[in-house]
Amino acid sequence: MTLAASPALAQQAVTIYGVVDIGLVSDRDSGKSTTRIDSGQQTASRWGIKGKEDLGGGLKAVFQLESQIEADNGTLSYTGRLFGSQAWVGLEGGFGSVKLGRVFTPYFGAIATNDPFDARGPADSSRLFPDSGVRMDNTIKYSLPPLGGFYADLAYAAGEVAGSNANNRQISMDAGYRAGPLNIQLAHHDANTISGAKAMRGDLIGGSYDFGPVKGWMTLARSRNDSTLDSRDVLVGVSVPLGHNSFAADYVHKNDRAKANGDARQIALGYYHTLSKRSNLYLIGSQLNNQSAASYQATLPGGTRRQLTAGLRHQF
């Protein structure tokens, strides 16, 4: 929904938007089964307000406030944060754009862009790919303007710890090329703990190519810190649109070099049926297997996690 502006703000457009997504989930974790209703099994349920004002000379003021919610019970996904999903203000023009506030990390953006399941729900690749938190607070983010298919983002999050600029600091960036059926992307993330230790250094290369009836996906990543984290992660996937229906599948493998028998793998399948421009049904299933010393997404070391969800998503 777009709101009309007052005469004093005649060049400003403000839009209210959102997603409500709820699924019925069957979940078997290390031999124990539960059935529940869960929000955000295809896309996070959320609502937001965004807008821009033309300042003249090609310059625009822009903003976005987005609240992520648990639509199954009406609570905020981020306790105490009304706009915990995104909250930023910025300027955009021929130079690109600059945003200030709480934003998605370019690194997580690269994970989601190169995941046929958009890094969400039971098939989410970041169940095995370390993402270092998805969002950054206290951030300044610069994005290149369109440059013949090339794009790039650079984000710096101030740690805001007295006496040290390194403590709690994050730097995240990506660069890529998108043209026709091809997208290829590089990303890097560097995050420190509140005490200044290295929380994660991540490097990623991902891409997709639309061959026509089938789109192929592939992502390779390395994640490490100074002590407990050293992994190589791989995703290979496909997606196939067929009229009002579409299918997706992928395989994710984690090679954990920080400990013996710490690897894990996940296979996922998804089916989507379009009801209208804004509404669709979905059925998504995944199985994640851990080696004996690993417990990714499982309550027990060596545990297996199987999930199947059927749901409805509506966008407005």
Describe this protein with a few key phrases:
16-stranded antiparallel barrel; Porin; 3% helix; mainly beta; 60% strand
Q: Tell how many strands the DSSP assignment holds.
A: 19
Shape: globular
Order of helices and strands: EEEEEEEEHEEEEEEEEEEE
Low-confidence stretches: 4-10
Mean pLDDT: 95
* CATH fold type of one domain: Porin
The second-level CATH architecture of one domain is: Beta Barrel
Across the major sheet, the strand order is 2-4-5-7-8-9-10-11-12-13-14-15-16-17-18-19
Taking the sheet with the most strands, its summary is: 16 strands, antiparallel, barrel
Q: What separation lies between the terminal Cα atoms?
A: 8 Å
CATH superfamily of one domain: Porin
Residue share in β-strands = over 45%
Computed over alpha carbons, the radius of gyration is: 20 Å
Tell me the structural class.
mainly beta
- Helix segment tally: 1
CATH class of one domain: Mainly Beta
- Helical percent range? under 10%
Model description:
This protein is mostly beta strands and 316 residues long. It has a domain at 58-264: Porin. The chain is built from 1 helix and 19 strands. The chain has a 16-stranded antiparallel beta barrel with strand order 2-4-5-7-8-9-10-11-12-13-14-15-16-17-18-19.
Compile the SSE list and pairings.
Elements: E1 2-3, E2 12-29, E3 32-39, E4 46-56, E5 59-70, E6 75-76, E7 86-93, E8 96-104, H1 106-113, E9 135-143, E10 150-157, E11 170-179, E12 182-192, E13 198-210, E14 215-224, E15 230-242, E16 245-256, E17 264-274, E18 279-290, E19 304-315
Antiparallel strand pairs: 1-2, 2-3, 2-4, 2-19, 4-5, 5-6, 5-7, 7-8, 8-9, 9-10, 10-11, 11-12, 12-13, 13-14, 14-15, 15-16, 16-17, 17-18, 18-19
